[in-house]
């Protein structure tokens, strides 16, 4: 069935949203819901389908070709297809790397366009932003070096000569530029203020991966990003004032990030003590799984 559906997708056009969107969802969930042994075979089937990968290339490119709506709208059928495309490609990136699967067709994406899709949101639906951030996380985790993905540099057309980074700092962060990093961090901070649960989870996860990437590439830039004073204001904006306000998954994960990179100007001993006190008073058995996992990570980091 996976083989048949992937072949069907390869015969479609990007505008065939009614057929493509559920089909891509089926491929996505097939990868996630199967056993590890079958998962490896499923990844091989999809990555050997050149027509499917060419279609995914066209679908993703429609993200920046679409006209932004005049006002925020519910998820349109085209936006839903874009979400499915980004989520499927993010999953393929992760599993191709995990299983070292042979790639028969690469995907080419302009990194500047991907970043701008998050930085300049143009009233994109939340689910579409989350899907693009899932892809961005997968690319960051692999240092933009996946054999499935060809990254086209900033201000560079495909096939043109790659420009030299403008500074030693940019060279260390390549293919990201320092200014792009700072713009992305500001955009992620702004998205957190929306206090949407799904969006907050995706933003914090993206921020975690970004700082990890930066720390490997250039520790000074990573520590500078992690210690931005605006983070402290952002942190307390997220708190809802309730008795267990610190025991929110996204807040705990942010706290863990700041402890990990020793951002003492963001999180002090006072906040750490307050979290420990709230955890001691909580009924741990009744905490949601996401909160329990985030609390576990925080305590281990402390």
Summarize the structure.
The chain is mainly alpha-helical and 302 residues long. The chain has 15 helices and 2 strands. The N and C termini lie far apart (48 Å).
Describe this structure in words.
The chain has helices at residues 2-10, 17-33, 36-47, 50-61, 77-99, 111-119, 126-141, 168-173, 178-192, 197-217, 219-226, 230-238, 249-260, 269-281, 289-301; strands at 107-110, 149-152. With 302 residues, the protein is mostly helical. Helix 1 runs antiparallel to helix 2 and helix 6 (111-119) runs parallel beside helix 9. It is globular, with a radius of gyration of 20 Å. The termini are far apart.
- Residue share in β-strands: under 5%
What does the overall shape look like?
A: globular
Helical percent range? 55-70%
Q: Summarize the main sheet.
A: 2 strands, parallel
N-to-C terminal Cα separation, in Å? 48 Å
The assigned structural class equals: mainly alpha
Radius of gyration: 20 Å
Biggest sheet strand order reads: 1-2
The tally of beta strands, per DSSP, is 2
Q: Spell out the helices and strands N to C.
A: HHHHHEHHEHHHHHHHH
Uncertain residue segments: 155-165
Enumerate how many helices there are, as a single number. Answer: 15
Mean pLDDT, rounded to whole units?
89
């Amino acid at each position: 069935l996976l083989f048949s559906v992937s072949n069907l997708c390869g015969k479609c056009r990007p505008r065939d949203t009614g057929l493509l969107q559920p089909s891509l969802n089926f491929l996505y969930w097939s990868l996630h819901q199967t056993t590890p042994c079958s998962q490896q075979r499923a990844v091989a089937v999809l990555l050997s389908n050149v027509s499917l990968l060419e279609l995914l290339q066209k679908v993703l490119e429609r993200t920046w070709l679409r006209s932004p709506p005049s006002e925020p709208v519910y998820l349109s059928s085209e936006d839903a297809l874009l979400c499915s495309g980004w989520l499927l490609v993010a999953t393929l990136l992760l599993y191709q790397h995990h299983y070292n699967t042979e790639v028969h067709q690469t995907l080419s994406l302009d990194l500047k366009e991907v970043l701008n899709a998050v930085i300049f949101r143009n009233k994109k639906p939340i689910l579409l932003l989350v899907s693009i951030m899932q892809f961005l996380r997968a690319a960051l985790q692999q240092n933009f070096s996946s054999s499935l993905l060809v990254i086209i540099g900033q201000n560079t057309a495909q096939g043109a000569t790659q420009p030299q980074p403008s500074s030693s700092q940019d060279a260390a962060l390549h293919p990201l530029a320092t200014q792009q990093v700072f713009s992305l961090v500001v955009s992620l901070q702004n998205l957190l203020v929306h206090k949407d649960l799904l969006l907050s989870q995706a933003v914090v996860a993206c921020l975690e991966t970004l700082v990890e990437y930066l720390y490997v590439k250039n520790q000074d830039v990573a520590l500078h990003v992690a210690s931005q004073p605006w983070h402290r204001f952002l942190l307390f904006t997220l708190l809802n004032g309730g008795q267990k306000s610190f025991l929110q998954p996204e807040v705990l994960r942010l706290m863990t990030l700041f402890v990990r990179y020793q951002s003492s100007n963001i999180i002090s001993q006072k906040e750490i003590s307050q979290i420990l006190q709230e955890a001691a008073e909580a009924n741990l058995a009744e905490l949601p799984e996401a909160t329990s996992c985030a609390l576990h990570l925080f305590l281990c980091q402390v």
